[in-house]
């Protein structure tokens, strides 16, 4: 650990309040011999002073571009468009390996600078299971927002909250009508979170996973009032919803939440929309008669930034303590090189 320099960058997205490493875990990294630089970030849920108290070095927001070349840059969401050449190893969710819009351009920036993307989505064990994920909280928030929208109590713009306050808003009130809910991908992290949120709202959701989606019962799907999709496909899967389904006279479905937000990917299982929603406009009306509302926000866990960051950091910490060329990080780097080769992107020697 003596040579590891981690650089926790500011997130340029104004609604991103999470962090991959919380101050308590930063202290553990420093005690283990790592150097940890933390950029100022006005919206991060944990103030810079808590990191300084853990013997982290402060730095201005965005100064990672001038960090030592051997520093490992930690973040969560997208990088700014500059610099055009990325010289560092970056640990974050790059969303660049499934031909998403802008993916090739991002990878070319790494190739041009000699850096590398260590994508957190592909930080996996020997069996391909993810080692650190926000999935539970993404599912929980997705289902919670869907419930509030369905009951007419979702207000915009959205704002971060605490779980106790969110659960209080989810509790049924006098006059609330009962509704049926379906979670697809119910056995995964996100799916389990969605089921838990529906339960907090007083509803036991129908739970589908691989067995139910191999031979999809589309009339049954359309017969639910609320649907949460928690399936992130890594290969082609027949769509769960098609555009023609939205106009089916048998459609009872009124509220749809896509936790995975895989829009633009050829593996998208909900190819019925072409852009995500956001905190300012969390809902998009897909059909008017009868109504069908879409929620597709790609940083849902940031609405519970303290809880989701604490859980994620606890899972990431042992991986950072073991940071090196082999193991899970070696698999991350191999995946980066593989995708670059597949896209014909030549990396700098």
Any overview of this molecule?
The protein has 349 residues and is an alpha/beta fold. The strands form 2 sheets. Strands 3-2-1-4-5-6 form a 6-stranded parallel β-sheet, sandwiched between helices. It has a 6-stranded mixed β-sheet with strand order 8-7-9-10-12-11. α3 links the parallel β5 and β6. α4 packs parallel to α6. It is globular, with a radius of gyration of 21 Å. The model has no long low-confidence stretch (mean pLDDT 96).
Q: What is the topology, as strand order, of the major beta sheet?
A: 3-2-1-4-5-6
Main beta-sheet annotation = 6 strands, parallel
Structural class: alpha/beta
The outline comes out as: globular
Number of strands: 12
Report the span from N to C terminus.
26 Å
Helix percent band: 25-40%
Counting DSSP H or I runs of 4 or more residues, the number of helices is: 11
Write the layout of secondary structure elements.
Layout: E1 5-8, H1 23-31, E2 35-39, H2 48-52, E3 57-59, E4 72-74, E5 89-92, H3 103-113, E6 116-119, H4 135-150, H5 163-170, E7 181-184, H6 189-200, E8 206-208, H7 210-214, H8 218-222, E9 226-229, H9 243-246, E10 255-258, E11 284-288, E12 291-295, H10 305-321, H11 327-342
Parallel strand pairs: 1-2, 1-4, 2-3, 4-5, 5-6, 7-8, 7-9, 9-10, 10-12
Antiparallel strand pairs: 11-12
List the keywords:
6-stranded mixed β-sheet, 31% helix
Quick structural overview:
The chain has 349 residues and is an alpha/beta fold. The protein has helices at 23-31, 48-52, 103-113, 135-150, 163-170, 189-200, 210-214, 218-222, 243-246, 305-321, 327-342, and strands at 5-8, 35-39, 57-59, 72-74, 89-92, 116-119, 181-184, 206-208, 226-229, 255-258, 284-288, 291-295.
């Amino acid at each position: 650990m003596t040579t590891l320099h981690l650089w926790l960058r500011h997130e340029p997205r104004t609604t991103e309040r999470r962090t991959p490493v919380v101050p308590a875990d930063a202290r553990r990294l420093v005690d283990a011999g790592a150097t940890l630089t933390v950029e100022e970030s006005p919206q991060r849920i944990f103030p810079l002073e808590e990191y300084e108290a853990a013997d982290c070095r402060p730095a201005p927001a965005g100064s990672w571009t001038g960090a030592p070349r051997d520093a490992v840059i930690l973040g969560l969401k997208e990088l700014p468009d500059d610099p055009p050449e990325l010289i560092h190893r970056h640990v974050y969710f790059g969303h660049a390996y499934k031909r998403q819009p802008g993916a090739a351009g991002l990878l070319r920036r790494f190739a041009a600078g000699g850096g590398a993307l260590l994508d957190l989505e592909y930080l996996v064990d020997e069996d391909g299971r993810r080692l650190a994920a926000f999935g539970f909280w993404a599912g929980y928030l997705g289902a919670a927002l869907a419930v509030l929208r369905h009951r007419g109590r979702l207000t915009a713009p959205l704002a971060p909250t605490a779980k106790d306050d969110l659960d209080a808003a989810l509790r049924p009130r006098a006059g609330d009508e009962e509704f049926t809910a379906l979670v697809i991908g119910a056995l995964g992290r996100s799916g389990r979170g969605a089921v838990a949120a529906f339960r907090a709202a007083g509803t036991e959701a129908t739970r589908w996973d691989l067995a139910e989606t191999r031979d999809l019962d589309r009339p049954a799907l359309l017969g639910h009032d609320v649907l949460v999709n928690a399936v992130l496909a890594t290969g082609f899967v027949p769509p769960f919803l098609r555009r023609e389904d939205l106009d089916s006279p048998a459609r009872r479905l009124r509220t749809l939440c896509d936790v995975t937000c895989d829009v633009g990917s050829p593996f998208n299982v909900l190819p019925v929309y072409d852009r995500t929603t956001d905190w300012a406009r969390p809902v998009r009306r897909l059909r008017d008669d009868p109504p069908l509302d879409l929620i597709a926000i790609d940083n849902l866990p940031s609405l519970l930034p303290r809880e989701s960051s604490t859980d994620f950091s606890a899972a990431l910490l042992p991986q950072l303590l073991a940071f090196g060329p082999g193991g899970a990080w070696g698999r991350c780097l191999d995946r980066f090189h593989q995708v670059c080769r597949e896209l014909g992107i030549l990396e700098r020697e």
